[in-house]
Amino acid sequence: REIMEIDCHLLGLNIAAEQHHAVLAHWESRNNKLYKSNKDSQRRRSSAGSQVDEDDDE
Q1: What is the spatial distance between Cα 15 and Cα 50, in angstroms, rounded to a whole number?
Q2: Which ranges are annotated Basic and acidic residues under compositional bias (predicted)?
C-alpha cells in the first residue's frame, strides 16, 4: 500500500512537471516570435534607411 501511495505521488509530480513544461514552452515560443519580429522590423528600418541614403547620392 505504501508503495502504491508513493507511486501515485510520483505520478502526480510527473503530471505537474509536464504541465509546467508545456506552459514554459508556450511562453518561450511566443516571446521568441515577438523578439524575432521586433529584430526583423529593426533590420527592415535600417536597410530602408540605407536605401534612401543611396538614392540621395545619385
Answers
A1: 52
A2: 34-43
Q: Considering only CA atoms, which of 31, 10, 28, 8 is closest in space to residue 20?
A: 28
- In the three-class reduction of DSSP (H, G, I as helix; E, B as strand; rest coil), residue 55 is classed as helix
Unique residue bearing C-alpha cell 524575432? 36
Please compute Rg for the chain using Cα positions.
Answer: 25
Residues 10 and 21: their CA atoms lie apart, in Å, by 16
DSSP character string of 5-51: HHHHHHHHHHHHHHHHHHHHHHHHHHHHHHHHHHHHHHHHHHHHHHH
- Global pTM? 0.51
